[in-house]
Amino acid sequence: MKYVDEFRDGRLIESAAKEIRRLADPGRHYRIMEVCGGHTHAIYRYGLKDLLPENIELVHGPGCPVCVLPMGRVDDGLDIAETSGAIFTAFGDMMRVPGSKGSPLEYKARGMDVRMVYSPLDALKIARQNPDRDVFFFAIGFETTAPSTALTLRQAKAIGVENFSVFSNHVTIIPAIRAILDSPDMRLDAFIGPGHVSTVIGCRPYEFIARDHGTPVVVSGFEPLDLMQSIVMILHQLNEGRSEVENQYARVVPWEGNLPALRALAEVFTLRPYFEWRGLGFISQSALGLSPAYAAFDAEVRYEVPGVRVTDPKAAQCGEVLKGVLKPHQCKLFGKECTPEHPIGALMVSSEGACAAEFQYRFRIEELEILEQ
Fold first, then answer.
1. Which CATH class is domain 1-373?
2. Prediction pTM value
3. C-alpha span between 180 and 68 (Å, rounded)
4. Which of the residues 91, 238, 295, 338 has the least number of beta carbons within 10 Å of its own beta carbon?
5. Predicted confidence (pLDDT) at residue 21 exceeds the cutoff of 90
């Protein structure tokens, strides 16, 4: 198995589409949420919505860590660097995310030392290369990227690097799903479970969704056939009256998760009592802060953090899109004031943002087709 070509085979994808049309009850409307932003981009990129019957609606979930970060946390991180003179390091996804006074790239243009890194280890390397400067890493991501931050902090502690710290914005997926399930304005028939997060946490944490809420979950890969097969599996469950957690992505995701990675997370991090999510508000036990054993590397201990709370621009409807209440194109600013070149909301910036996906793979194509006519 090459694990790519087979999952992009047009004949197999069309076969899955026919099976979906056979299984879908024409008298029923299905709402299936793909939690992960990577799935959202794959759905748009491969035009999978066009292969589904009209009564199957795919709802975009909050599985984009850059998108769910409230603007105030961006401001906090930039304020730390500006007031302390520390070198600000972050993943490329963060560079154009707007705070209330500008994005990290805009701060860089104003003269602040802002550097893009590909991993937390790159940030640690910068700290070792600049022993006379403080360096902090703006850590972000679900359980997918948190282990790399944990292992970097382990190494920093082992070699005694004193000028390195982490501003942790790692969030956890399960509390966000709980918040969605508890939301009175959301009705969902099933979840396409996040593939990347599940490589770390496994499938067992989703069992409460099927058990307590009667909602099927199928953990899926990211190729077009992965997603189509996952929808087939969901429809089989719904037709048979079952609510279970199934693992379509078994070639990558172990049921119990990545145990060494989970041990590293347990050692380095602790759950925060509360953390604010864009669109979902404050959710308890939903984010990771550094444990007392790593307090020396905690930017929130080392520096004075303003704790800014900033609301999104009034016209932007990022929160509604994140919760799946609105489609990206239903936002008043979509494709007008808010574009990838001039983003107002994080959902138009991130490589996993639902607005960026719809703009790139549907809105822009439709716009070009109109111009060609």
1. alpha beta
2. 0.90
3. 13
4. 295
5. yes
